[in-house]
Amino acid sequence: MLTCPSCKTTLTRRTSRLGFFWVCPSCRGRAITIEVLRKAVPKPVLNRLWQMARSGRYGGDRQCPSCLRSMKEIPLGIGSPSRLLDVCTGCHFVWFDRGEFEALPKLDVRKPPGTKFSPEEIEALALERLAKIKDKQYAEETGPDHWWEIFPALFGIPIEYNRTPLRHRPIATWLLAVVIMGVSIAAFRNLGPVVKGWGLVPAEFGRHFGLTLITSFFLHGGAIHLLGNLYYLMVFGDNSEDVLGKARYLLLIALAVLVGDFAHILSNPGSTTPCIGASGGISGVLAYYCLRFPHARVGIIFWFRWYRMSVGYMFVVWILLQIITAVQQSGGIGRVAVFAHLGGAAVGVLFWLFTRQSFSKTEESNAVMP
């Protein structure tokens, strides 16, 4: 049940062609989420309001109808300069007092013949058209932005573009990366015995009371192996942690590590070759990120050609490559723990499926629009 932040009346849920919204039957205020507003308000106008809300320069006393946190009072800047929008940066709710929503410029605005647009509306519509042109040009780009991006891409490392902004510092990702780096570098001094002693051996996975299921995650076979895994963790882990929270994010990695380990064991239970590396757990993070942010874009080199694609397509390509490698390994070709990758990725997919329901309910209880 949502309550009006102004008069404390219970809000009434309504439906429009753009989505759900909530109306106060007393003061006629409306609660609308950023996600739904994107369908009605020009992108530059909405981006400016959102950046102002997250800048930390504005405060507010009203409580969000959804999460009850204090909303930020942002100057509307259109029409009356004294108008203030109430924005919750936590759950993306925007509260409109009566007349405020109508004051915002809209997409595809149609006015009666002879009626002129205001200067603010003309500027907003022009900026929206420019943004669409830029998006189209960006989608058509076929080369890297910088020449040096070619070198990591040659090693199969995707280059991240249109980075998704973070709401919180990815402390868990940073700490995990530091621990992995510290343990791996320390092991480099005497790598052979350490790998034999603490790597995951499928035929002896119960040794050290099963601790090798975990210790193998922190060990790497060399600098390139380590840096590659850390890159994937930092690029795809920060946004995953941001939306999941630290506890669920670490749970995702832990489950991906364990399921990836057992998938590797089942693929060749009699093997006595130690397996090390964090890629099983990171595969879970990669899968979750690609499904949670399918429109984020990366640049990769494939068959000696540069491609820009959404991470959703990249994930499909990645899965196909893992399956091809798995088939080759069944014929005795290759030594990459590909089944650990697939097991970890399966956890990421399941994690996305289960958490998607809770996120969609939260967003729906946040969402809105007239």
Summarize the structure.
With 370 residues, the protein is an alpha+beta fold. It contains 13 helices and nine strands.
Structure report:
- This protein is of the alpha+beta class.
- It folds into two domains: 1-140, no CATH class; 147-365, Rhomboid-like (Rhomboid-like fold, Up-down Bundle), CATH 1.20.1540.
- The protein has 13 helices and nine strands.
- It has helices spanning 34-37, 43-54, 100-103, 119-140, 150-154, 171-188, 191-198, 212-215, 223-244, 246-267, 279-292, 311-330, 338-366, and strands at 12-16, 19-23, 30-33, 72-75, 84-87, 93-96, 159-161, 297-302, 305-310.
- Helix 10 packs across helix 11 and helix 10 (246-267) packs antiparallel against helix 13.
Write the layout of secondary structure elements.
Blueprint: E1 12-16, E2 19-23, E3 30-33, H1 34-37, H2 43-54, E4 72-75, E5 84-87, E6 93-96, H3 100-103, H4 119-140, H5 150-154, E7 159-161, H6 171-188, H7 191-198, H8 212-215, H9 223-244, H10 246-267, H11 279-292, E8 297-302, E9 305-310, H12 311-330, H13 338-366
